[in-house]
């Protein structure tokens, strides 16, 4: 997997690009542009040098980005180990509040037993996780509201 993807916003809509110009604009190798052409990126015509329209390039990159998406249907969270949406084990999900209105869903994958996470709003819990038991846990303790810590000092022992 590449370190970063080509940004379609760097491509100007009303400009034509040669292979080397497009590679420089997107920050990829010239051979990557040839691979894109083999996967369906349409050139302006069959003459040399090969030119591509900016609007065509943007549409191609947007379509490629959309094909990589794997939206989670209701009742599932995305498992990074399985690389697909999975149902939580035993239908149990924890909601850890981060802000007043939102937080993180946390559950164990029913297949590989990996911890899965998903960001969610508290108001959408019933819609996102239907048929699952959602337990709202205590939020993380903030340092601002804590009592003063006990000193880690052994002065009494030294005397």
UniProtKB/TrEMBL annotation:
Name the domain of life this protein comes from: Bacteria
Domain (HTH merR-type) ranges: 16-41
| Source species | Novosphingobium humi
The name on file for this protein is Helix-turn-helix domain-containing protein
């Amino acid at each position: 997997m590449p370190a970063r993807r080509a940004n379609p916003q760097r491509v100007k809509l009303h400009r034509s690009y040669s292979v080397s110009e497009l590679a420089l604009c997107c920050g990829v190798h010239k051979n990557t542009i040839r691979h894109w052409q083999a996967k369906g990126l349409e050139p302006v015509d069959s003459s040399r040098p090969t030119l591509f329209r900016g609007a065509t390039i943007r549409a191609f990159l947007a379509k490629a980005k959309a094909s990589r998406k794997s939206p989670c249907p209701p009742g599932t969270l995305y498992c990074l180990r399985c690389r697909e949406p999975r149902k939580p084990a035993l239908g149990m999900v924890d909601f850890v509040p981060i802000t007043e209105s939102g937080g993180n869903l946390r559950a164990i994958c029913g297949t590989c037993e990996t911890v899965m996470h998903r960001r969610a709003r508290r108001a959408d819990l019933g819609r996102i996780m239907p048929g699952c038991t959602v337990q709202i846990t205590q939020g993380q303790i903030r340092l601002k509201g804590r009592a003063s810590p006990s000193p880690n000092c052994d002065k009494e022992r030294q005397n």
